[in-house]
Amino acid sequence: MTSAPATHLFQSDASLALGEARAAKAQRTAHGAAHGYPIWLGVGASPLPHSQEEQAPAPTRDLATLAERAAGADGGLHKVLHAALAHETLYTAEAGRLARRTHLESGDALATYTRHGGPVTGIAVIPVQPGRTILCTASWDRCLRFWDAEHARAPFLCVDNAAADLLKALHYDAPHAILCSGGSDKTVRLWDLAPMLAWARRSLESAPALGADAPRPPLVGSYQVHTRPVVSLASVPAAPAPPAQWAPDVRNLDSALVLWSADSMGRVLQVRWDADTQRCTVERELDGPETNVHQLVPAWREYDAEQYTLDVWCVSSDQTVRRFPLSAHARETVLPGRASHAGAAAGAQPPLRADVCFSVPARSVLPLAVDDLVLLGCVDGTLQLWSLAHGACVHVLDGHWHEVTFLSVWHRATEPYVVSASLDGTVRRWPWSRLMARREAPEAPAAPGAALTAEEEAELEALLDE
């Protein structure tokens, strides 16, 4: 009598097939330019070749056991839950209760940050001065930990009980020096990091590393409007032009901190924080997602000659990727909102609805300032390049074998690269030229009845011969 592996118990045939497919793809896409020069986290260095013809070394991780894990086949402790890119360094928040600092050129792990008691779900890079960075990590252990990124032996400050339940989202707004956190207690909290930054600059004048006498960041605002766990946070990014070149109805974004928060029910709120009163006011909802929001990405867009507006891109578990344009001057046809509602819409302003919606099972989004293109990190592990003009996918990069949770652009000296990270425990580096190669508009379908039958073609030829 033979016994099945323990991991096969209570698994359906479909789950077993999924595990086998992921294991086969992991082996097939383990290295090479065609699969994004993968860095296998926790394995070792994966230097980027000097030319796209060179082959990077294959990983030493055992891939044979993946199939036995069936639907649970993933990157295990190295699953990337959140990430942040700074220059040529990628910071990853991982399921194995640690964060990691990886050099994108060499693939080396420069540091690991290992004091959390649960999966690390949020990471924020806080510049102090050129060459020096504070790293903040958030975890299911409800703690915020602050690290001297270049000297990562231990956190120099721990904010215990920073939430009443699991922390699931973290975001840093540099112009206002405000750190935002959210999680399962349905509360968004705002922490003032200005005192910490001033302390860090003073400390680095006389010491090579930050000490343990850091001031605890004061809590300067909070709101509890969400009815489900807060899972994503974002704020206004740096603008490509001064406010005089913004659309008239978005120029008020420059007057205060404007924050977007999303929960696991699909509710997305736009909130304004007043620094004088330390009050958070919900301005309106972004009406569209039906269920959990994976990611919010605000991005500036030039909608007219040297005129800019801000869009908020939203990736949801309802298998949609939506664009919410904040300016009425740059809004296409407005799409319907969500079919279900949890009470009345919040905020004094009417709900904002999307003008673009892609039906794609995605986990991450990266708007590109090139020809109205948007890059999607998908559940099946592919990177899909979508054209707003055609409303369709125009190119696919295939490398990851699990959900793609992070996308960003790395401005390497030779050419830009797209960096992706995934639940498969790998980071991949895609040359811009490969992303834009073979980019073609989808063929328009033939009009009904336009094709000729063989008999009609013969009759037409006979008429032409006459």
TrEMBL record:
Q: Which GO terms describe its cellular component?
A: transferase complex
Question: Where would one find coiled-coil regions in this protein?
Answer: none
Q: What InterPro entries does the record tag this protein with? A: WD40/YVTN_repeat-like_dom_sf, WD40_PAC1, WD40_repeat_CS, WD40_repeat_dom_sf, WD40_rpt
Recorded hits in SUPFAM superfamilies, A to Z, give: WD40 repeat-like
Q: What is this protein called?
A: Similar to S.cerevisiae protein TAF5 (Subunit (90 kDa) of TFIID and SAGA complexes)
Say which species the protein is native to. Answer: Malassezia sympodialis (strain ATCC 42132)
